[in-house]
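Hi there,

I know you've been waiting on this one. I reran it after we fixed the sequence typo, so this is the corrected version. Both the input and the resulting structure follow.
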Amino acid sequence: MRSPKTAFVLSGLIMSVGVTLTAAGLNLLDEAALYTALFIIGIILFISGLYLNNRYVRCPHCDSHLKRIQGSKCPYCGRELYKNDG
């Protein structure tokens, strides 16, 4: 995964699915097996999203973690985050 923006979007999507599954599991308290399965899968997905965010949402030059991606330059080193294909 080369683009920090792609990693940011993908990790956010995975974490959102994890939270949704966990919430769905909490709403199904009457069915213990389904509740447990959804809860565990949701937690695993959320943790996976956190890992992806921490590992891949980084500046390709200085390797600083980009907490939020705003603009096309790294807030730490000032270099371009994306290659220009022009």
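Quick highlight: The helical segments are 4-27, 32-56.

Best,
R. S.
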